[in-house]
Structures are given as C-alpha cells and as structure tokens.
Amino acid sequence: MTETISLPLWLVLMGAALTVWALLDRLFLPGIRLYLRRRSNTLIEEFDKRLDLPLPAFKLIKRQVIIDRLMYDPQIQETVEEYCQENGASSKEVLKKVERYAKEIAPAFNALIYYRFGCWLCKSVARLLYRVRVGFVDEEGIRRVDPKSSIVFIMNHRSNMDYILLGFFASQRVVLSFAAGEWARVWPIQQFLRAMGAFFVRRGSGNPLYRCILARYVQMATEAGVVQAVFPEGKLSRDGRLEEPKIGLLDYMLREFDPDKERDLVFIPAGVNYDRIFEDRTLLMSIDPKAKQKSLLGVIYTTSSFIIHNLWLMLRGRWHRFGYAVVNFGTPLSMREYVKKHKVDFKNMEKEVRIEKVKVLAQDLMHKIGNLIPVSPTSLIAYVFAENPEKTLSELEIKARVQSLISKLEEHGAHIYIPRSDWDYTIDVGLRMLTLRHLVTEENYLYRAASDEIKLLRYYANAIEHLIHPDKPVDRVLSSKKSNA
Fold first, then answer.
1. pLDDT band per the 50, 70, 90 thresholds, residue 481
2. What is the 3-state secondary structure of 380-395?
3. FRET partner for 101 with CA separation of 20 to 30 A, picked from 137, 227, 301, 394?
C-alpha cells in the first residue's frame, strides 16, 4: 500500500494539462465570458444614448442562430428541393452546402471589438493617412428620416479605404454593416470584419442556392433595421469614372419590400473622392491589356517598398499625408414615397419586370451619387494637365484654367471642396500632390505633365469629368477590351 508508483513523464504532463483545462473551462472561462458580456452590454447601452439610431436587436443575435435561421428558412428549403430535383443530389449533401454558405455569409458582430477597437482603428487610420472632411450633408433631409426605417448608404467605390472612411463617419451616428468581397476572406482580416458586422459576398456567383441564401440574409437584416452600406458598382473603379451599377443587393432588399409595413426602406446616397488613391496604378494596370501582371511576390515587394518608403519619410520629418479625403451625403430617398410616386410594387411583380424597375432605380441612385462626388484639389489640377498634356504652364495660367473649370462646375451644381476657403491654397495643395508624385514636373516655376504619367493624370481627372461635361458619353474602350478578354 505504501509502495512508490512511477509514472511516465508524458502521462504526468497530460494529466496536468487536462487539470488546467478543466479549471479554465469550469471556473475561469465562464467568469471571463460573464465579464465580457457585462462590458459589452454596458457599451451598447452607453453608445445607444449617443447614436442617432439604436443598435438593432438583429445585430446582437448569435452567429449560430443566424445560420440556423437561414438553414431552416422556408424559401431556402424550397430552393433546396428544387436544387435536388434539378441536379439529382441528395438533400443531405445540399443541406451541407447550405450550412457552408450560411457560415460563409453570416457576420459575428462583437460590440467590444466594434466600439473599442474598430471605431478607434477607422479614425486613427483615416486621420493618419488623409485630411478627412465632410463636404456637404443634407442635414434637413436626414433629420426627416423616420428612425424606424431601414437605412442603406449607397456610395461610389474609389478605394478599399472607402470601408474605413465610411466607418469613421458613421461611427458617431449609426452602427454600420457592409458587404465584403472575397478579397477579405483571409486570416485575420476575415475574423476582424465579421466581428465588425460585415457579411461576405461572392461577387458574380451564378449558383442559385448561394444567391438564395445571400438574398435571405440581406432581407432578414433589412427587415430588422440593420444600417447597411452598399457599393452598387460592385467593384473598384478601374479608370476613375463611375462604373455601371450592379443590382443584386438592391434587388434582394426590394423584392420583399412592403410599403404598408411599419418599417420604411431609405437609401442615402454618398459620394467620395481622394487626392490620392493607393491602388491607382494597380487599377489602371488591370484594364491595360499590354500591362504585365505582377506575381504575388511582386505585389508583396511593391507594397512593402511603399510602406517602408513612407515610414522612412516619417522618420526624417518629410512625410506628408495623402491629401484630402472628402465625403458628401445627399438627400435620402424613401422607397415608400418612391413606389407611391412611380406606382411600382416590387414585391408582387414578375421577376423580369421587377429587374427592369430595379435597374431604373439603380441608375437614378448612381446619378445622385455622381452629382455628390466632391471636386478635390488633385482632381482639379489633374484635369488641367490631362487636357493639356503637351503644354508647359505657369502658375498663373494654371489658376486661370482652374477658374474656368470652376465656373463650369458651379454651373452644373457640383460640390467643390475648398480647403480653408482659400482658392490659392486649394490650387497649391493639388499642385503639390502631383509634383511630389512626379506626375507633374516643375522647372523654373513652369509646370508640365510627365509624359509617362498621362494615364494616371487622366485617372484622377475622370473622377470629375462627368460633372464638367454631364452630357458627354463615357468612352470605355480600354475597359471593354479587358473585360472581353
């Protein structure tokens, strides 16, 4: 009875590990979860008092509950049956696909991460890189929106910074949800965006099962009053101009919209413009059939070099922020008023008719967005040199040409952002940005477009060309060649 028993070291270590795990699982982790839940609830109550719209209950539903609701949704079950019959697949196999798609789409909103980390990160990054400004806001129109409405921000897509910028502006007023593309489905970006309330979308997927699940999630979120942000172009602008709108997400929202229900659906158009866009050269290369596409290592090398170069400039005190990032918010569009005015019933229309009506609405929204795009200092100066690529201009000549552009823009009702309300400073800011990037060369106080950078100058000029020449048809020859390849 008193004999010593020898145990192998691996068995002792395993026993110790199991003991520690049991203590964590039964004693410490429940306490930590309770503490975090209380902190989260306190944060939600605190921010609900500050926000214009309180956080919808749907945002606080556990992710697994959303997945279960999607899996057992009657419309999805009906689509599963049709899919099984058409493809000769078993219901068990198809339901596994449904679960996989639901897990892929569903967000996992975390109030602590959103309020304590996400909002701080958006503000810090936006302010570090840009002079962030709100140019124009239709405050009166936004004040008239019923707080019980489902609000959707509709915005042009210039850069991946759009997500951060919109999150920055919305953080003091609403809790925002947006669709993230497949580019973001990498660790740890995917986990962070899910915690911020983003849902994931496969762009251009023709799978009817997947589209049905995505549609039902969007409809559930819209009906529950989740504030969403949608980029109707569906992708970044490749040439600086507005792209044709994609109607997928809009159609999902509208096909279940009932104007007689308590909750209205309201679209708030927004326009964004930047003095510098990080992806500008990459976007231009993507539509140039002659451009040599970089390998993954090439992309990593270019990105790393860019970051290191700017860090080196910071250390030497020679770093400038990338100019201004400006957002304008326009007049809200109530769907309850829209359907009454245009005598349409999206919910009870045949699919083909509904699609055509949604396209008309999408074009109307894109027109509103286009009119809201801010005229930034860089776009103004870039337009002058893109229109005069062979000419050498003095500063006085540049100012004269800018003044001529401003007259046209004001005539067409464009929103021009004038830093410090000083036209001379505005021109200096735009000229400095272009000369620092060597898009414009300067010698003896005379300026000229760099011969090998005309495309990039045109890219920034394209952002406001539709405001200067609203009736001019868009030439997308280069884009169409690329898309048809």
1. very low
2. HHHHHHHHCCCCEEEH
3. 227
pLDDT above 70 covers a percentage of the chain that reads 89
Positive/negative CA dihedral, 47, 189, 251, 66: negative
Average pLDDT, the chain: 87
CATH number of domain containing 479: 1.10.10.10
List all residues 6 or more positions away from 116 whose beta carbon is below 8 Å from its beta carbon.
Answer: 43
- Domain count of the fold of the chain: 4
Q: What is the DSSP letter of 305?
A: H
pLDDT value of residue 311: 81
pLDDT band at 474 (very low <50, low <70, confident <90, very high): low
Q: Which two tokens stand for residue 340?
A: 């009454």
Q: Where in the sequence is the domain holding 429, given as residue range(s)? A: 377-484
Would you state the pLDDT for residue 429?
93
If asked whether residues 221 and 366 sit together in one domain, one would say yes
- DSSP, residue by residue, 236-254: --SSSSPPPPP-HHHHHHH
User: Is the pLDDT reported for residue 154 higher than 90?
Assistant: yes
pLDDT score, position 478 = 37
Q: Rounded to an integer, what distance in angstroms lies between the CA atom of residue 102 and that of residue 459? A: 38
Give the dihedral of Cα atoms 445, 446, 450, 454; nearest 10 deg.
120
**97 is a domain residue:** no
446: in domain: yes
